Amino acid sequence: MSNKREVFVSVDVEAAGPIPGEFSLLSIGACSIYEPEKTFACELKPISRNFDPKALEVSGFSLDELALRGLAPSDAMQAFTGWLSTVTGRNATPVFVGLNAPFDWSFVNYYFHRFSGGNPFGFTALDIKALYMGAAGCNWGDTRSSKIAERLKPALAGTHDALRDALYQAEIFRLIRSEFMNKS
């Protein structure tokens, strides 16, 4: 058992399609769940021209614009690693938390390994949908963010802006822990 403190980090991404490698990670937003004023955000240069038109419509990104103004993926992942170090400090472990974490984590994991040599989050992620399902005793269909928000009444809302969505997810996570687990 580790004596390291766990720092829960809400992470959201916008991507050009459904899978990393073939489609590009376009933006990353993150915040410390219990210190949400500690944030990270960046936009990345695409690694390919592949895209799902619906993904770009939802995010509002243009691959051409990101090719000009986005960070190189290695620079983005180095900046994210640096930010994580400041949030966690020396004796803490960052815990990746996402709403539909398998999607977001797959892109972050791929980019960390391809462009930075390793993933500071390790090989695991905490999924808010699964946490909610277990805590609320609901069906999987009731874990959509709209259904969760209907019950928990967060002040924030999802917008498909990675940082704003990371902040929204952090609020949802805190509400789940507060309502169902009596922890903050």
From TrEMBL:
One of its GO terms (molecular function) is nucleic acid binding. It holds the Pfam family RNase_T. The keyword Hydrolase applies. It comes from the Bacteria. The keyword Nuclease applies. Residues 7-182 form the Exonuclease domain. SMART domains: EXOIII. This is 3'-5' exonuclease.
